[in-house]
Amino acid sequence: MSDHFRSYKSRIKRDYYNTYPTDEERLSHRPEEVSLSDWKILLNYWGDEKVQEIAKKNSEARQKITETHTTGSTSFAQVAHMLRLEKLAKLEKEKQEKLGKMPVNDDGEGEGNGEEDPIKVSDADIYLATRKRDEKREYKLPEQVLKMVNDKIVDVKKTLETEDTSEDSEKSANSEKSANSEKSAEVSYEDDNDVNTD
């Protein structure tokens, strides 16, 4: 409700206050739904120098914001949860053996067997999900700002792909090391058992 009222006030100021240069013109063109006494109060308020300074400062700050999220009232925590569930569904569709050692309960949580949870949602994943732009929709941002945001999204995607590739190679190197250390431990154990105890 407060968001609607804020939008309403903004529209009233834009259409009936900023459009006319003097208070006399503003009084003669007041919105029908606003009483004369309320309109005079608003004119005095918006005409105050301190209020105009604050409005100018806020307007300049708003112009500097280039990356707005596109999730509406959905919280980032909800976005992270949805991404996690999507990743879980993707993992389940892939070969079952990828999750073989990692049983998953109904909440998508890995059950504690000492293994690391394979379903992680990074800040970069959340960033990408909350900055998606609908190509069919027209945005109020200038074209150059939209291009800058889209370029940043592409950079983040490339970084994620690079990190995923390096993590995969690191995991395979670690599993090779672990397999080699298990083999050497077996050999060492066998050597200890071969010792002649005459």
UniProtKB/TrEMBL annotation:
This chain belongs to the protein called: Uncharacterized protein
Q: Biased composition, Basic and acidic residues: where in the chain? A: 168-185
Q: Which Pfam families match?
A: Transposase_24
Q: Which InterPro entries match?
A: Probable_transposase_24
Q: From the UniProt record, list the coiled-coil ranges.
A: none
Bias kind Acidic residues: ranges: 106-116, 188-198
Q: Which organism is it from?
A: Heracleum sosnowskyi
Q: Where is this region: Disordered?
A: 94-126, 159-198
